[in-house]
Amino acid sequence: MLPAILIILATLLTFGFWSNRNQTKIIRQHGFYRPPRLPNSCLFGIDRIALIFQAAGEGWPMELFLRHFTLWGSTLQHRFLGVEALGTIEPQNLQAILSTNFTHWSMGSREKVMGPLFGRGIFTQSGPSWKHLREASRAQLASRRCNECQIFEAPIERFLDSLSRTKGPIDIHPKILNLTLDITLSMLFEEDTTNDPVPQEFSDAFNDAQFILAKRLRLQEFYWIVNGRNLRRSCKIVREYIDKLVYQRGTKLDCDPILLRDQIINLLVAGRDTTASLITWTLFLLVRHPVELKKLQKELQESFPDDSRINRAKLRSCLYLQDVIKEVLRLYPPVPVNSRTAVRDTILPVGGGPDLSQPIFVSEGTNVAYSIYALHRRPDLYGMDAEIFRPERWAEAPIVSNETGYGEWGYLPFNGGPRKCLGMDLALTEAAYCIVKILRAFPGIKLPVGERVCVVGNEKQSVGLVIFSGDGCRVSLNDEE
Ligand SMILES: *[C@@H]1O[C@H](CO)[C@@H](O)[C@H](O)[C@H]1NC(C)=O
Ligand SMILES: *[C@@H]1O[C@H](CO)[C@@H](O)[C@H](O)[C@H]1NC(C)=O
Ligand SMILES: *[C@@H]1O[C@H](CO)[C@@H](O)[C@H](O)[C@H]1NC(C)=O
Ligand SMILES: *[C@@H]1O[C@H](CO)[C@@H](O)[C@H](O)[C@H]1NC(C)=O
Q1: Ligand 3: distance of its center to the CA of 101 in Å?
Q2: What is the DSSP secondary-structure string of 74-98?
Q3: Superkingdom, according to UniProt (predicted)?
Q4: Residues near 352 by Cβ (< 8 Å), separated by ≥ 6?
Q5: How remote is the CA of residue 99 from the centroid of ligand 2, in Å?
Q6: Contacts of 8 (CB under 8 A, 6+ apart)
Q7: 103, 187, 221, 375: least buried by Cβ within 10 Å?
Q8: Poorest-confidence range of 17-21, 339-343, 387-391?
Q9: Does residue 29 sit within a domain?
Q10: Closest Cα to atom 8, ligand 4: which residue?
Q11: What's the 31 CA to ligand 2 centre distance in angstroms?
């Protein structure tokens, strides 16, 4: 432990000192403003990391970031373990990072931080290797015809069947993770997984590994402190299981088998966790909003009077269902916080000066974190009821005109620019399909008696790479009374 502490201190001193000095020089030379700075009460900003870990442990890390932005401004600077970093929830800045000046930014140390699980898959790569993987994934997705929803049918039938006999309240969250895992594996391997169910051990290891990686991400340059036996064990279980599947299915290996496995693991997180987050939060919010639930059930009854085939076009034509999904993605964007690292000196268009509207300078190597969760709760973009679940807002005129780019860059549940989520259309169809099936199978779905209800956002949250409810999602499905 002592050597680790000494290395940290030495790195903090040299790295922090030099990077600050260079930055100060350029800012003076060009007359740039600085964004507001979060105050530190402790040397090197150790208090910041302590607070972030405390908030994560207690289930309110996203609310902590939201409060920071509310109190100090939409773009801010903070000292984080001795290193200056930026945070922003400014649509114009996000547009610059994700699109206009895309090439000035990389995934930073993500390959090292998330490597144990994600390897060299699409989420850790930048530049040419990312481009290559992106094209390959796009081709793979295009080859799956999911417009008619057949891929979802067998998994959802198994899922509904396993729930049909439950009595009393159940936590539906782990069941939904099972469902989206089932769907994603059927898609990746182009066949049904019925014959040998996915072992619970795999799902548990997959969850654990993601939570440990989220801790490493929070530590940034000091990620290597968290590299315990648990992480290695979890990643080993995940890798071995995927290898077994690849081998069993006799997948044609026209590429490096390690790269193939890495890529499958990346797509599993994309397919299983994010969609499960969307479906679970939808049910979580609907059982707590009976008026909206009734309204949606009425629309679904009218749109799907019998067991006629549900397809993508029909799902798209259920306008209230679409608004409910947009609203859930606004309040709980599956990947609620993300970051990029500047690969050269660059500029963000707004955030400095007396009215926070002046460009700010960003030196090479600076990390910029952005919170989609906080962006989506900005009252100046969404109104005074921004923190309230109200699907109807999507059918009204927007608060801010679209000319400034707010329409596109103020709502980013699937990210934006060249790295925008490739599976967006698939995820929206899959989630809509599953929600319709669940609501139709359990018309009496409701909040169990005595279940905690609080203001949206104040519930306990569990944030690994994806945001889930920290207390699961308990619902009553079949109770008669
Ligand atoms: C500071 O600037 C000098 C040259 O101007 C450069 O060699 C050095 O790498 C920079 N250091 C950091 C930490 O950016
Ligand atoms: C998920 O599915 C596996 C088998 O596919 C089963 O063993 C496990 O109990 C399921 N988990 C839950 C929470 O239903
Ligand atoms: C992109 O970066 C360049 C160079 O740093 C800067 O001049 C320009 O304003 C930036 N563009 C946007 C849209 O931020
Ligand atoms: C807002 O503008 C963007 C492009 O500037 C466009 O893609 C998007 O569809 C517009 N949204 C609305 C609601 O008009």
Answers
A1: 6
A2: SEEEEEETTEEEEEE--HHHHHIII
A3: Eukaryota
A4: 32, 33, 34, 35, 75, 358, 359, 360
A5: 41
A6: 81, 222
A7: 103
A8: 17-21
A9: yes
A10: 408
A11: 60
Q: How far is CA 159 from the centre of its chain?
A: 24
**125 lies in some domain:** no
pTM over cut 0.85: yes
pLDDT, the chain, mean: 88
Residue 65 token pair:
């970031």
Distance 21 CA to ligand 3 centre (A): 22
* C-beta atoms surrounding 4 within 10 Å: 11
- Total length of the chain: 481
The amino acid that residue 240 corresponds to is E
> Would 400 be classed as within a structural domain?
no
Ligand minimally distant from the alpha carbon of residue 173: 2
What is the SS3 assignment for 463?
A: strand
Compute, in angstroms, the gap from residue 310 CA to the centroid of ligand 2.
26
pLDDT at 81: 72
Can you spell out the DSSP letters for 149-161?
Answer: -HHHHHHHHHHHH
Nearest ligand atom owner, CA of 84: 1
Report the distance separating Cα 114 and Cα 120, nearest Å.
9
Ligand 1 binding pocket mutation candidate from 14, 17, 22 (most atoms within 8 A of CB): 22
**112-171 per-position pLDDT tens digit:** 899 999 998 888 888 888 898 898 888 877 776 655 688 899 999 999 999 988 888 999
Domain that holds residue 69: 2-49+65-116+335-373
* Cα–Cα distance, 374 to 38 (Å, whole number): 16
Q: How far apart are CA 87 and CA 105, in angstroms?
A: 14
Q: Is residue 442 assigned to a domain?
A: no
Is the CB of residue 408 below 6 angstroms from any atom belonging to ligand 4?
Answer: yes
The answer to whether residue 177 scores a pLDDT higher than 90 is yes
The full 3-state SS of 337-362, as one line of letters, equals: EEEEEECCCEEEEEEECCCCCEEEEE
Q: What ligand is nearest to the CA atom of residue 366?
A: 1
Cα(41)–Cα(26) distance, integer angstroms: 27
Q: Does ligand 1 have an atom closer than 6 angstroms to the CB of 19?
A: yes
Contacts of 135 (CB under 8 A, 6+ apart): none
> What are 57-78's pLDDT values in tens digits?
999 999 999 999 999 999 999 8
